[in-house]
Amino acid sequence: MSGTPAILACAPGTPPALDPGFRPAALATREMKRLVKASCKAVLVGIAIEQADGSVFQFSTEVLPEEHPAASSNALHVERFVKFLLWSRGGHKVYVQGPKTVADQLRAHYTDTPAGRFDAEIMGSRIYEKPFEIVHTATLPAAHEATMPLGRHLEGCRIGFDLGASDRKAAAVIDGTVVFSEEVPWDPVKQTDPRYHFDQMMDMLRSAAKHLPRVDAIGGSAAGVYVNNRVKVASLFRGIPKENFAQAKNVFLDLKKEWNNVPFEVVNDGEVTALAGSMSLNDTAVLGIALGSSQAGGYCTRDGKITSWLNELAFVPVDYNPQAAVDEWSGDYGCGVQYFSQQCVGRLLKPAGIEVDPALSLPEKLIHVQNLMKKNDPRARRIFETIGTYLGYAVAHYAGFYDIKNVLILGRVTSGDGGAVIIEFAKDALRTEFPELFDRMKFNTPDERDKRHGQAIAAASLPVVPRKQ
Length: 469
What we know:
Blueprint: H1 25-39, E1 43-50, E2 56-63, H2 73-88, E3 93-97, H3 100-112, H4 114-128, E4 133-136, E5 157-163, E6 167-174, E7 177-185, H5 194-209, E8 217-222, E9 225-227, E10 230-233, H6 245-249, H7 251-258, E11 264-268, H8 269-281, E12 286-291, E13 295-300, H9 342-352, H10 362-374, H11 378-398, E14 406-410, H12 417-433, H13 435-438, E15 442-444, H14 448-460
């Protein structure tokens, strides 16, 4: 990797079995800090991310002076740093305090590169419905966050649901106890008519409502970004043409009307996963990571709340190798979706030496690998070892942006014996390279009860039911 930025020179001490080119974001960040400290000329770069409601998140990092021999690392470090902030917190305006060249390089990235333009469009017009901006400033705006203390409301008769890419789940919940649940296959991603989604979800809610004396509230989780119950960006609705997206945008508001405007809340599935984990563990500071058709992320704060942050870890860079796997949606490289999902299993088949019918879907390829794992096939084991090593380094990187006591790991990729291997190798990578983090974190997986009902109970607990006077 000669001629590349100096921060990419650090190979992992615990390399993933099937990916020798892996360059963990955590190691690149640590090397940047080392170079800056050794230079004795740290250059402070302040970053503030603003959301449409006025929330502002402040961060800072340090880069090398422009005359430093390794200064070519600055642009990569800041761009990947800001991308993490955009997809973990969310915002349409990025304030940059520091050298003007840093702001200019960022602005060029978001206007001149396909991956940058994707992020700018999603953050600007799609999520926050504001122009996306990079602003160079001498003074950052003050930090301010509009909190959203959702969840943990279990009184009454509620419906909880979870919408995935391959199945939808719903449960009827009375005072925190699940009295009915079902899981139904569906295929939302390819659908071009938003009526399909509405009808499927109405059937789901009606099915659960049959088991309740009344419906006091409805809470749900779904893959994607949702603001005030409006669909902003979601893979579940990717098949709908832009000209028809307005109908999909308000589908949950339309559902609420059909259910007599009972309290109704829909949030990202990762947030509900973290909330469910916190409720089950009876602990806080939980980062939930779901390895499924994509990668879902969610966070429950140290005071037990979920936030207005995006936590879309699927788009967060975890591998800084410019030759890393590319996400087919955003066009960017090294992002979590290609490391913690069925897509990762699919791309590791070839280096593992496993041949399958190319016509098989990704879920079918995962099942094939899991069946090989049951037979103690070493090729399948190396796939899960590789994912585990990726995960250990990724968690170390996440810890630079989240206060983490508990890491909750779940999702279809973790089913069966492979899940234990993933966690084993994640712990090994973290213990070897970042012992100070390993000592203060716990890895958790949901038990069978939580797998069946935890998400539904947490989702059902999202809305507040006003007290009757």
